[in-house]
Design the sequence.
């Protein structure tokens, strides 16, 4: 019935780009079970090891007892529970913004923010390595979509200076999800203030991991002790926070504008309140468990040292995302499959997720990986060099 779709799938498979889902039969952790086999996993964004934390499990149970399971309605039609409201207040305080707003996912948050804040007469300036959700949001907004080379501030300034758009919005990952590097946030803020632009920062991979007490990439720099009113901050709650969802934090008028105009907020059922109840516990753990970020730093250092002699290059990253650049699609898949045969999971990342010729293994580290786990991975990689 759909021969063109079948042909597209065949071509994708021939190019080594077809993806397959794997059914995980265990809780998310550094060791997971797939098809009855146990694996050492370097494939999760559970950076702090909270996804299966006993305190979060207990909080989910308490939240279900107090609020039930489903929210039953959108936030604007009696689906906004006390749990949601308490979490929004806590997230605003935790990140240092006047207000915060919950979204169901980071993808929906980016779509909602961008399409609510800019339109046909406006311009969006985007880093070329931004996450797909930011690119999709820009296209949906119908604003002029202007991209600049990765972290090229001179190119960004030139584009901002020559724009006559009614409203300007710069959008950027804070931590780039496939590179692991960090955007030059103080300089981005300065440019946005100079050229009267808003700045949307997607901190999906920095929140909980970076900054004082895990409060995010914005608080890594002494230059940003007080947030610029030009910043709109988005972070997800299903990675380092270990649960689900996302939030946007900003000035009060920005949050109120999103409540009134962000379609991905208005026209969807609110997330289960029990998740917000659990996330209050997650915030407490993120704030108090400094040992988790210390363990991550040790794991990153161990991996970097062990792979110094590898013919494959670790991209420069100080975050838990450690991309090992292979280049060729087929070779990247071979190495990933070789690791799997040895009981180790590291995903092969290929185009179109990354540019052509830059296929890589995306090694994701967790605070709960042990030194012998990283040793097992690096020894297996060295074996695969000569196999």
Sequence:
């Amino acid at each position: 019935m759909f021969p063109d779709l079948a042909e597209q799938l065949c071509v994708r498979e021939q190019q080594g780009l077809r993806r397959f889902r794997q059914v995980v039969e265990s809780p998310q952790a550094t060791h997971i079970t797939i098809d009855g086999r146990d694996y050492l996993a370097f494939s999760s964004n559970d950076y702090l090891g909270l996804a299966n934390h006993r305190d979060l499990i207990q909080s989910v149970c308490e939240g279900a007892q107090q609020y039930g399971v489903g929210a039953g309605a959108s936030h604007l039609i009696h689906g906004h529970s006390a749990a949601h409201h308490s979490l929004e207040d806590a997230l605003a305080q935790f990140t240092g913004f006047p207000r915060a707003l919950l979204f169901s996912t980071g993808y929906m948050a980016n779509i909602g923010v961008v399409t609510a804040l800019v339109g046909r007469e406006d311009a969006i300036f985007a880093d070329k390595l931004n996450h797909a959700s930011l690119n999709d949001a820009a296209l949906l907004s119908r604003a002029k979509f202007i991209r600049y080379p990765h972290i090229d501030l001179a190119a960004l300034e030139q584009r901002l200076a020559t724009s006559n758009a009614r409203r300007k919005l710069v959008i950027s990952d804070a931590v780039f999800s496939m590179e692991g590097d960090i955007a030059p946030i103080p300089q981005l803020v300065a440019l946005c203030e100079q050229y009267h632009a808003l700045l949307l920062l997607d901190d999906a991979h920095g929140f909980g991991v970076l900054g004082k007490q895990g409060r995010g990439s914005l608080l890594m720099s002494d230059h940003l002790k007080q947030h610029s009113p030009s910043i709109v901050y988005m972070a997800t709650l299903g990675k380092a926070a270990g649960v689900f969802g996302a939030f946007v934090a900003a000035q009060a008028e920005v949050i109120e504008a999103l409540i009134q105009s962000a379609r991905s907020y208005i026209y969807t059922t609110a997330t289960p309140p029990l998740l917000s109840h659990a996330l209050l516990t997650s915030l407490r753990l993120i704030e108090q468990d400094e040992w988790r970020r210390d363990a991550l730093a040790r794991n990153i250092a161990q991996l970097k040292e062990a792979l110094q002699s590898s013919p494959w290059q670790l991209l420069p990253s100080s975050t838990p995302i450690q991309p090992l650049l292979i280049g060729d699609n087929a070779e990247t898949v071979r190495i990933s499959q070789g690791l799997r045969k040895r009981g180790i999971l590291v995903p092969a990342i290929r185009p179109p997720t990354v540019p052509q010729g830059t296929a890589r293994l995306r090694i994701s580290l967790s605070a709960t990986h042990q030194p012998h786990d990283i040793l097992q991975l690096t020894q297996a990689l060295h074996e695969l060099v000569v196999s």
Observations:
- Residues 76 and 379 are 54 Å apart (CA to CA).
- The mean pLDDT is 95.
